[in-house]
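B., you asked whether I could sanity-check this one before it goes into the benchmark set. Here's the sequence:
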Amino acid sequence: MESYIVPVLIVSFISYKILQFRGIKKKLPDMLKNGALVVDVRTKAEFAGGNRPGSLNIPLDILNSKSKELDKNIPIILCCASGTRSGMGVGILKKNGFKSVINAGPWTNTLV
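And here's what the prediction gave me:
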């Protein structure tokens, strides 16, 4: 019985993330129409390999210092390769006073 706990937790977590990103993906068109900015926190090389047109590339390791250049009054949509780094980016921006920040997960979620 106990051998099933870890796989069930993993499947539950992955399912939760998929549903979370689907909900965000539905909101993106309206957010973008209303002036939201997409910030991709992948490395410059990853970004060069494919990105959402019009998105801004600020790698996660410099997001804290570069956040001063972003407008705190517009919604920020963060993305990366899987959602992990963009999730960390949400914490960085919120710590720096940004109120409207969401994690869109993989950058391909922003292709709406």
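One thing to flag: The chain is about 45% helix and 15% strand. Otherwise nothing jumped out at me.
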